[in-house]
Amino acid sequence: MTDSEQTSVVITGANKGLGFEAARRLGKQGWTVFLGSRDEGRGRAAADKLAAGGADVVLVPLDVTSDESVAGAVRLVREHTDRLDVLINNAGAPGNIVAPADATAEEVHAVYDTNVYGPIRVTHAFLPLLRAARHPRVVMVSSGGGSFAVVTDPQQPVSKMHELAYSSSKAALNMITIRYAQALPEIKFNIATPERSPTASSPPPT
Asked: Which residues are the signal sequence here (predicted)?
């Protein structure tokens, strides 16, 4: 079990990019970091790197598109702590940049499975542990591409990125976060929109 005074956080998609950086920073602050990673090998390498720097980190194999994997992640976290202070839904999928007229439902669904259904799966599964914390918080990592104001502003590069799946998935995630916040006031829900820069799950505009 973790120290009852030590803040705990689960971060999905934390083996690289923004998720890894969040894990690194929170680990330096003394938090217990449950590093979620779909690829166990890459996750282990990331966890070992953080541990070498002194972080209290636990690798959590976690595929947000799988109910079974998410349930296993909850069981693993429960082996270490009886509560979860913070959940960061960071895992994301960019999909292919396909023009709306050419996008198929199958292609869009694949992106939604990670970017929309994934955060719902993970949040729902971890709610009991979150409710056991004194001041629980859930952070949804979104994108400017999910903002109606940004996408319709011709001065914004993303307005020229005529794809369907990624931006609409992030718009859906924004609304989902608002609805969670309204329905569960005992848990603080936030949307984080990192400054625009290309990442593995957020492609550059073309």
From this structure: none
